[in-house]
């Protein structure tokens, strides 16, 4: 059993339990349900940097990354750095995140927010909306084509955008459909944790132009972004490189400054 299989088994149990305690009507009654969302895909299309900075306390591959900062401090720092969007990990067991982190981020900044979790059920998309998300992540490795279609159409019906994550050509071909907004190539294999930017470079040509291309994980230098841009990437999801520093917001700011100097 891979770590990804374990995460999904736990997630199914977690969602089933939460459904018993928090009815959908309660999520739909959230004040945030009525608010409009930001379009990350539009911002990325018009941005010259395209950084999506992630709030990530720990991960199965690296254990603790940063426990010292509150989510508000981190996301305000990211916003001040001028990032295009912010990803908030909401998985508790493996990443130390929560839906409260998303809610606090929503209350603190006004940039597009991605709910980063393992979404397998419409219920989690309602949760995402009720806690201030603008975008959801769907991971092709753990979903069937019909599920991707159902979940992405449901997200759109709530005004949320969809970032579809793939890691290889089979996943991409299985998942491609009009109800997606952005395609993210994960440079980290979630089953083996191997990381290489070559995954983004090799898949780029197979991603149709109507989707904004995002490169995810293992990005730790401005040079990496300069290498990926010629392949058509307009979004760059960065977690650890910022979160492992003393002050993630300051780290993002100096990264953005050197990126803009070199643009
Ligand atoms: O910390 P990194 O290597 O910069 O990676 C960020 C992000 O891409 C990574 O956290 C991620 C990509 N896809 C995921 C799916 C679930 C959880 C986490 C992820």
UniProtKB/TrEMBL annotation:
Gene Ontology terms describing biological process: L-tryptophan biosynthetic process
Domain Indole-3-glycerol phosphate synthase: 4-252
This enzyme's EC code(s): 4.1.1.48
SUPFAM superfamilies registered for this protein in UniProt: Ribulose-phoshate binding barrel
Keyword Amino-acid biosynthesis: yes
Coiled-coil features, chain-numbered ranges: none
InterPro entries: Aldolase_TIM, Indole-3-glycerol_P_synth, Indole-3-glycerol_P_synth_dom, RibuloseP-bd_barrel
Family: Belongs to the TrpC family.
NCBIfam families from the UniProt entry: PRK00278.2-4
Stated name of the protein: Indole-3-glycerol phosphate synthase
